[in-house]
Design a protein that fits this description.
Helix content: over 70%
Largest sheet: none
Oligomer: single chain
Order of helices and strands: HHHHHHHHHHHHHHHHHHHH
Number of helices: 20
Number of strands: 0
Strand content: under 5%
Structural class: mainly alpha
């Protein structure tokens, strides 16, 4: 009863409406009603926009879930497919997805970014050390960057040679089209055509493998320029093989099936092949995930890091290695000198390895990926956490390892499918091929064949794969790092020692045998005293 009385009074006052105050109150109610109606319409509009955004996000999430489910169905995620030890097997076919490089994501953390800052600080301290030493010892700055200019010398010849290799790689496309057209025109006797074009393809790769190294020696290219040419030579050969390998399957698989009249095989166009020659991957696909825009600031930053790493490496050689090895070659390399030189080269050698990894596999690759709008940036994985050497070899350089896995390991397994030890044969083939290519680049750069890397990588390193197989304790991660330090020290010592022996102990007669016989063991040290 007490609550109904005020209500009746308010209704009565509205119906009477005899004074001005009541009229003003009525107008205020009308205005308030209009404001409420406007607010209601805005709320409904915001609600509709909000629901539309939520619906869009749900659609994207559903697409990701469906893509993940499809990938799991294709590649398998069960314990049986991953193996008894839980290690994930690679997909039957490489699937490219949009993702950043691991270090790019890690550098978003301030704690991890500090490690990057420490390396920058070390570079600054090394520069200051050089400046102070020059001023105190010579009374002036003696900054000599002529060695960098010499190492990257004859740049116009390098560009000319690169353009020739690029042109030959482009020729592979019309040759492949010609083979495809001949197979379609000739319904019978395709085996003869295939054998003929297989010989042409082998000759094509042989030519690409021959004339660049001949040009390197004829033009006497310096070390860094030689490495650039040799690496590009190997890259073009791997790219051409990937394109031929991926598309030849499309031609050969339907060979037993007659195509309908007027139908032809759908093969990629030239623009797709041209794009493949520049994107930072060795696995051919008709299309790759792409980023929306090019972040030019990001490109400049990565190229600046490459230049900084170049000077970083120069300071390491100038301050830690050249003073130690400069007088090498005056006396034989005995066990005592080998131990002293190896242990003094471990830390500088490891720093060169890490800097080389960061500059090439992270900064250089990300710069080109950004310019090409290539979205899959998984050029490496967390190799530094490896406890098995097999995982270290797999994750150190994902670009090369994927090519070796899909075109060497799997194809060798297919060829040896009736063999009981096919997996061991495939693994040995991968190791030998990788070791030979690495040794080839080093031999071209140094101008002598000294198979230290071949033995350590293809011999000792291969044995470590079996030794650390299925090891999960963190002790084995420490073991891996110790072996890397010792390996880098040994490689740096033996190759640098041979380099300086050849400079300080020249031969009176030059012959082709000198290229293959280490002068460390053939030098007449008595005559050099």
């Amino acid at each position: 009863m007490t609550e109904s009385v005020p209500v009746r009074r308010r209704v009565t006052s509205k119906t009477n409406g005899v004074n001005e105050s009541d009229g003003a109150h009525s107008n205020g109610q009308v205005t308030s009603y209009e404001d409420n109606e406007t607010l209601r319409r805005q709320t409904l509009r915001f609600r509709a926009e909000f629901l539309e955004q939520i619906d869009g996000h749900l659609d994207q999430l559903l697409e990701k879930v469906m893509h993940t489910s499809k990938t799991v169905e294709e590649t398998g995620s069960s314990d049986e497919e991953n193996g008894a030890d839980g290690r994930q097997k690679r997909q039957a076919h490489k699937v490219f997805v949009e993702r950043e490089s691991l270090l790019t994501k890690m550098f978003l953390s301030e704690e991890i970014k500090t490690i990057y800052n420490i390396f920058v600080a070390i570079l600054i301290v090394m520069i200051l050390n050089t400046l102070v030493y020059d001023i105190m010892a010579h009374g002036r700055l003696v900054i000599d960057f002529s060695h960098i200019g010499w190492a990257f010398g004859q740049f116009p010849l390098v560009i000319t040679l690169w353009l020739v290799m690029q042109a030959q790689a482009l020729v592979a496309f019309p040759l492949f089209q010609q083979w495809t057209q001949m197979r379609q025109d000739c319904r019978t006797g395709t085996a003869t055509i295939d054998i003929l074009w297989l010989l042409i393809y082998a000759s094509f790769q042989l030519i690409l493998a021959t004339y660049p190294i001949m040009a390197i020696y004829n033009w006497n290219l310096p070390p860094a320029s030689t490495v650039a040419v040799a690496c590009e030579q190997v890259r073009f050969m791997m790219k051409v093989h990937s394109f031929v390998r991926e598309n030849a399957v499309k031609v050969l698989l339907p060979a037993s099936q007659d195509l309908p009249a007027g139908n032809t095989l759908e093969l990629p166009g030239f623009s797709k092949y041209l794009n493949f020659l520049f994107v930072p991957t060795l696995i051919y696909r008709d299309k790759y995930p792409r980023t929306a825009v090019i972040r030019w600031k990001y490109v400049v930053t990565n190229f600046a890091q490459v230049v900084a790493c170049l000077f970083y490496t120069y300071y390491i050689f100038a301050r830690f290695l050249v003073p130690v090895f400069n007088e090498v070659g005056r006396e034989p390399l005995n066990l005592r000198n080998l131990a002293l030189l190896t242990f003094s080269s471990m830390v500088p050698g490891m720093m060169v390895l890490i800097i080389g990894f960061f500059s090439i596999l992270h900064s250089w690759m990300n710069a080109f990926a950004e310019m090409m709008r290539f979205a899959d940036r998984e050029f490496y994985k967390d190799w530094w956490n490896s406890r098995q050497f097999a995982r270290f070899y797999r994750t150190w350089n994902e670009i090369v390892h994927e090519w070796l896995y899909y075109y060497v390991f799997r194809d060798t397994m297919t060829l040896c499918q009736n063999s009981r030890g096919k997996k061991a044969v495939a693994r040995i083939t991968v190791f030998v091929l990788s070791a030979v290519v690495h040794e080839y680049i080093l031999a071209a750069m140094l101008r002598f064949f000294y198979p230290v890397l071949l033995i350590m990588f293809g011999g000792v390193g291969f044995s470590f794969v079996w030794l650390t197989d299925k090891r999960e304790s963190r002790v084995w991660n420490v073991f891996m790092w110790v072996m890397l330090f010792m390996g880098c020290g040994m490689l740096m010592t033996l190759y640098t020692h041979e380099w300086y022996v050849r400079r300080n102990c020249p031969l009176s007669e030059d012959s082709w045998r000198d290229y293959f016989v280490p002068r460390t063991f053939s030098c007449n040290y008595t005559a050099q005293v």
